[in-house]
């Protein structure tokens, strides 16, 4: 377990918002933007969901006070989506309203497919009410083409990702090559229809494609990457003048996030096996 905690530390700033803010400031001074995420998901208790709202409000207050160049990102199952959709909407509205009053951008992460529809509904609701917010859309889901079209038609802002959750064949592209192909297709649509969007991947082929297309169809484009992944590539992009934003998680609920990061790369699994079996 202690090995897992050490491994997690490369992807997570620490347990407190102070540690995440310190990481964001460091990134700011190196020319990056930042997105801070308070870790947590699948909350089944109203009080806990309310505490998560309060933590996000404290985080926003600190970001404004300390003049950090950062937005925040939230997960809806951390804010009551599993308890009641209306409760979740009301919680998200509290955070979105507060973020908007501080002029801080709010991102909504996308969780696995049972929550896609509700997440989009709630996003469009708060976007139409407060603006200043964006949503992650996953290229591995077959429905995403329609979702991108729907959100772009309402002027919504999209963070395009490959998708971190394992999904069933009838709703998702399973092969890596198919996901990459769909990412490229959806990105092409965003270049055509959207004034601002985020390309959130560490895949150099897709990043280079975005850079090339942007030469012709100039857009406000942001490259977003996860803390602790491809740091050299991030620095190279910043040095070439691109907007690069580091996604910085913090909090005590680090295990599900860490497990997703581990499963994204075979080498990470091998590291764990070696530590367990001492090979
Ligand atoms: C800012 C940001 C926000 C995200 N938000 C969401 C979200 O809301 N919902 C969601 O489902 N997913 C989200 N994701 C995760 C995303 O869906 C992918 O699971 C993740 O980014 C890995 O895919 P990739 O696009 O980097 O491509 P991949 O093909 O997986 O990776 C490309 C290359 O990047 C490097 N790399 C990738 N991951 C790792 C890693 N963990 N450790 C070391 N090297 C690695 C490797 O060199 C790899 O060859 C987000 C990703 C980012 C960057």
Detail the topology: elements first, then pairings.
Layout: H1 2-8, H2 17-29, E1 33-38, H3 46-65, E2 70-74, H4 85-101, E3 106-108, H5 116-130, E4 133-138, H6 144-153, E5 157-161, H7 176-193, E6 196-200, H8 204-216, E7 220-226, H9 231-239, E8 244-250, H10 255-263, H11 266-277
Parallel strand pairs: 1-2, 1-8, 2-3, 3-4, 4-5, 5-6, 6-7, 7-8
Helix pairs in contact: 3-4, 4-5, 6-7, 7-8
Question: What is the structure about, briefly put?
Answer:
This protein is an alpha/beta fold and about 280 residues long. It has a single domain (about 1-275), classed as TIM Barrel, CATH 3.20.20.220.
Account of the 3D structure:
By secondary structure, the chain is of the alpha/beta class. The chain has one domain: Alpha-Beta Barrel (TIM Barrel). It contains 11 helices and 8 strands. The chain has helices at 2-8, 17-29, 46-65, 85-101, 116-130, 144-153, 176-193, 204-216, 231-239, 255-263, 266-277; strands at 33-38, 70-74, 106-108, 133-138, 157-161, 196-200, 220-226, 244-250. The protein has an 8-stranded parallel β-barrel, surrounded by 8 helices. β2, α4 (85-101) and β3 form a beta-alpha-beta unit. α3 (46-65) packs parallel to α4 (85-101) and α4 runs parallel beside α5. The longest helix has 20 residues, at 46-65. It is globular. The model has no long low-confidence stretch (mean pLDDT 94). The structure holds flavin-adenine dinucleotide (FAD). The site of flavin-adenine dinucleotide (FAD) has 23 residues, from β4 and β7.
């Amino acid at each position: 377990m202690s090995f897992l905690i050490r491994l997690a530390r490369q992807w997570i700033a620490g347990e407190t918002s102070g540690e995440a803010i310190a990481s964001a400031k460091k990134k700011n001074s190196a020319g990056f933007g930042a997105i801070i995420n308070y870790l947590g998901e699948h909350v089944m208790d109203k009080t806990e969901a309310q505490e998560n709202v309060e933590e996000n409000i404290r985080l926003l207050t600190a970001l404004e006070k300390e003049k950090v160049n950062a937005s925040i990102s939230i997960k809806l199952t951390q804010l009551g989506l599993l308890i009641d959709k209306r409760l979740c909407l009301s919680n998200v509205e509290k955070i979105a309203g507060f973020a908007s009053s501080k002029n801080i951008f709010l991102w909504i992460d996308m969780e696995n497919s049972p929550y896609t529809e509700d997440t989009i509904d709630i996003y469009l609701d708060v976007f139409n009410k407060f603006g200043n917010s964006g949503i992650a859309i996953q290229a591995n889901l077959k429905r995403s083409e329609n979702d991108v079209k729907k959100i772009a038609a309402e002027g919504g802002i999209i963070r395009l990702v490959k998708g971190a959750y394992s999904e069933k064949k009838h709703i998702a592209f399973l092969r890596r090559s198919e996901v990459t192909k769909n990412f490229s297709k959806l990105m092409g649509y965003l270049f055509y229809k959207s004034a601002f969007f985020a390309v959130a991947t560490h895949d150099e082929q897709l990043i280079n494609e975005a850079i090339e297309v942007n030469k012709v169809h100039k857009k406000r484009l942001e490259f977003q990457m996860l803390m602790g992944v491809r740091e050299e590539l991030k620095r190279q992009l910043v040095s070439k003048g691109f907007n690069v934003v580091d996604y910085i998680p913090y909090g005590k609920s680090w295990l599900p996030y860490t497990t997703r990061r581990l499963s994204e790369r075979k080498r990470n699994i091998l590291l764990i096996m070696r530590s367990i079996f001492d090979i």
